[in-house]
Amino acid sequence: DSGVTQTPKHLITATGQRVTLRCSPRSGDLSVYWYQQSLDQGLQFLIQYYNGEERAKGNILERFSAQQFPDLHSELNLSSLELGDSALYFCASSAPPFTDTQYFGPGTRLTVL
Amino acid sequence: DQQVKQNSPSLSVQEGRISILNCDYTNSMFDYFLWYKKYPAEGPTFLISISSIKDKNEDGRFTVFLNKSAKHLSLHIVPSQPGDSAVYFCAASRGGNYQLIWGAGTKLIIKP
Prior knowledge:
The structure holds two protein chains of two kinds. Chain A is mainly β.
């Protein structure tokens, strides 16, 4: 158990809908990262937050957005969903500047029908 | 531009033998390297890391070697066990709260 929690574990929805994925980092970690993994491909970095502020952006679509709240949990919002958005979405947290090691949650499997 | 490359998509090794997974990087600013293991439908699990001030780090059956001049790192697993069958990702960082740059992964299959 990494200490990172993600909810829900599974999500099934229809095209055009909007969903919110939630992540709670390990206790004390200030950084949260979101990744997408489609069809057993590699990890695609989406976005990073550090202590409530956006720190780095990767291949995140404009239909996707994220935020980190004062209690350090984070939410990833996916809107106008398309079939191709079906994937595993992982959240990770770390405790910079002391370490860049990221600890991953179990993921949310999103299925868009 | 792929800054971290794992050129072998898959590797098959006999149980009990040594597994060697390789990773190359292009950015000489990277100073921290990590290996993660991932089972299907689970989050990646941190295995071992190495700072650029070292050339070797060991943790039980896992050893990571770093060759800075060649911009190459490798993960050795000795002896290989069936539970080691997974996808292994290497990642690199410039340190100081920069994002990790990930390789594409190598699928390790341990044969009985």
